[in-house]
Amino acid sequence: MEAVLTSAKDIYKKNQVDYVKKKILDLPEEFYVPSFSEWAAENRYIPPGVSDFYGQFDPASVPHLMEPLNRLHPDDPCSHVSMMKSVQSANTTSIAENAIGVYIRYKLGSILFLTSTKGIGSIRGSANIDTMIDNSGLADYVKPMSNRTGRKTKDTSLYKEFSGGIKLLISSYNSIGDLKSNTFHLIIKDEWDEAGAELKDQGDVAGIIEGRTKGVRNFKILSISTPSRMETSRIYKDFMEGDQREYFVPCPICGEKQILELKSKGSDYGLTFTREKDDRGNKVLIPEAVRYICKFCKKEFMESKKQWMLENGVWIPQATPIDRKKHSYHSSGLIAPEYALSWTRICQDFINSNFGDDLLKFKDFTINDLGNPWAAVKKTSEWETLKSRALDYSLGEDPGGEKRSIDDYEIWTGPLCLFGGVDVQGDRLEMCITGFGLNGRKWIIDYQIFYGETSDINAQCWKNLESFVYEASYTLAGKPARILQVAIDCGYDPRQGKRGKDYAGKASIVYDFVADRQDFFIAVMGSSDDKAIGIIKESRVNDSTTGLTKRYMVSSSLLKDMIFGVIEKNDGHNSIYVPKYKEIEGKKRHMPDEFYKQFLSERYQEDPKSPGKYLWKKIRARNEVLDTFIYSIAAAEYAGVLRWTIEVWENWYQDLIRS
Predict the structure, then answer these.
(1) Do 286 and 220 fall within a single domain?
(2) What pLDDT, on the 0 to 100 scale, is given for residue 1?
(3) What is the mean pLDDT of residues 8-22?
(4) Can you tell me the distance from the alpha carbon of 224 to that of 84, in angstroms, rounded to the nearest whole number?
(5) Residues 508/597/445/467 CA torsion (nearest 10 deg)
(6) 526 and 626 share one domain
(7) Concatenated DSSP letters for 199-239?
(8) Which is nearest to 603 in space by CA: 593, 590, 618, 614?
(9) What is the structure's pLDDT at 27?
């Protein structure tokens, strides 16, 4: 018995010795940790296939990103680094991935990399982080913590273990509830604005993430993202909570430092350009005429000077935060590295937004090119203002227009094509018919209500809707015109009530109706997604009973931004026109106030139930006029009309008057 005990003690002692040896070997090899930019310059190699700009990493190619990278060094007192950026700005490659490399190499602590979905995280892990490990002298540091498990289970695209007891976990914002038993020294929040407001029954996402550093004395949290809506953007909130650093670069002529900006109307400095007419009379950008006008000396210089400017620039805080350990940066596309987003591309994107008048494209430009959050142009408007702007025409009438030469094109200034939007209620179907013209102008042409039991697909209201859409004829530009496409809201089913986005596989009476009439009708559903850039997004339908395979999610928030941003304009891009009268028994009567009230029945405001969360809220009992108008715009977007060029509009007009 004694011999057995002695043997067990020997085994235990030997295991403890092996454990201690392993801990000693896992200790950092050097006391000195170089700056992160120094390590990247000496060790980081980006192979072909990973990026179009491969080769040895050169800090001089992104000099403005080296300060935020070096803030992640353990000797720097900064705890939070936030980067609000444009697209194609090299931030994730230059900052996040290099920081991961240093943490692995010098055994600085465990790392959590968060992104929008685990699928994207897996791609990031395989395509970027794995290749960095393999090509930057880090492969030998991959080492399972347990001797009983092989490398295969401890070196996956989403999870890795390294010498020093360090782990790298890649996850998504929807899965961070699984991390509650883990502690991390470095947390990277990639595309931070993709995170939801909160995890169900677990609280705010930001708080859960920050909680994973509670057991660490010297932690770092890096947030990188393009922004979204100003009121709800996470990266903008982080930027405002930090010291709000902007990159000041010297003028290559006078040497005065300044923030690079797009030249605004009435300003005498900034990024500007020149256009000329091509052989077809279209005004096009002259790439070689894109230049910057200095704020101080007012002299011009080209983008070829940008690299020198970046190398001699400096980050300057614009605010003093409550927490001095929070450093925040704004990386506009104007300071993107030369191999990424160009000044020419930025100018072209601005032109494509019709110099800011096309709100849909301007939102994309503001977020992706300038790296700025999107601010709703107008929160609300008074219905009396809309009523006072009503034009002198009746429902069902042609609002009129005139033939005008615009950029050598002969075009009609009034509506030229018709689209409809339908809202489903329990006892009726309400429909708005909208006319569309050049530059996104919209006229409410007619408004129809079909009463009946909408829960019965054979009810007269559905038959009346169908016959009306197929047979109705209006007059536009003096010629007969028919409704081209109609979008019907499927977010409410009178047989089952209101349902959310998760009901795609369930039957809907709108699916039943649309399935046999797809030549004229599409099924749509409103979405309050503040991050949306496009008006509609295709979504699959799995209702095998009808054979319908597609419906379309409509970005209601974006369209309301567009509507409320122009509702008080008398003319111009995206202008909206409403009638003053309706015909009753052959006599003109003023449109009822209820019509205008319903059109302006919502307001963008903070949710009283969820402080910090903003959304569109009804301020009146009924909003069918606004909803049906929105669906009619969705129908026009589905048909591609909102993207028509002036040449297409002219051809459409010529075909119409020849009919």
Answers:
(1) no
(2) 44
(3) 67
(4) 6
(5) 30
(6) yes
(7) ETTTEEHHHHHHHTTTT-SS-EEEEEE---BTTT-HHHHHH
(8) 618
(9) 56
Residues 124 and 177 in one domain: yes
CATH code assigned at 570? 3.30.420.240
- Among candidate residues 173, 195, 225, the one where a domain is terminated: 225
* Residue 333 · residue 259 · CB < 8 Å: no
pLDDT number for residue 153: 60
* Alpha carbons 618 and 625: distance in angstroms, whole number: 13
Question: Is 329 within the bounds of a domain?
Answer: no
Question: Does residue 287 form part of some domain?
Answer: yes
Report the pLDDT value the prediction gives residue 396, as an integer from 0 to 100. 95
Residue 93 lies in a domain: yes
Q: What is the mean pLDDT of residues 623-649?
A: 94
Q: What range defines the domain where residue 527 resides?
A: 383-658
Report the domain count for the chain.
3
Other Cβ atoms within 10 Å of 622 Cβ, number: 14
Token pair belonging to 204: 């705010």
Measured CA to CA, the distance from residue 36 to residue 220 in angstroms comes to 14
Q: Is 520 exposed, middle or buried (0-12, 13-18, 19+ CB in 10 A)?
A: middle
Token couple for 493: 């089913």
What's the pLDDT at 379? Answer: 55
Integer-rounded Cα radius of gyration of the chain: 30
Claim to verify: residue 79 and residue 153 sit in the same structural domain: yes
Assess whether 471 and 599 both reside in one domain: yes
| Measured distance CA(419)–CA(482) in Å, rounded | 9
423 and 492 in one domain? Answer: yes
Is the pLDDT at 140 greater than 80? The verdict is yes
Q: Residue 161: which CATH number?
A: 3.40.50.300
178, 200: one domain = yes
Phi then psi dihedrals of residue 400, to 5 deg: 90, -175
CB 424 within 8 A of CB 455: no
| Closest among 202, 163, 208 to 28, alpha carbons compared | 163
Q: How far is CA 594 from CA 443, 510, 556, 627, in A?
A: 18, 27, 21, 14
262 or 611: which leads in pLDDT: 262
Distance CA 191, CA 120 (A): 11
**If you ran DSSP here, which 8-state letter would residue 374 be given?**
B
Q: Cα(501)–Cα(512) distance, rounded to whole angstroms?
A: 18
Pairing of strands 283-285, 275-277: antiparallel
User: Around 523, how many Cα atoms within 13 Å sit in the side-chain half-sphere?
Assistant: 26
Residue 417 token pair: 């094509």
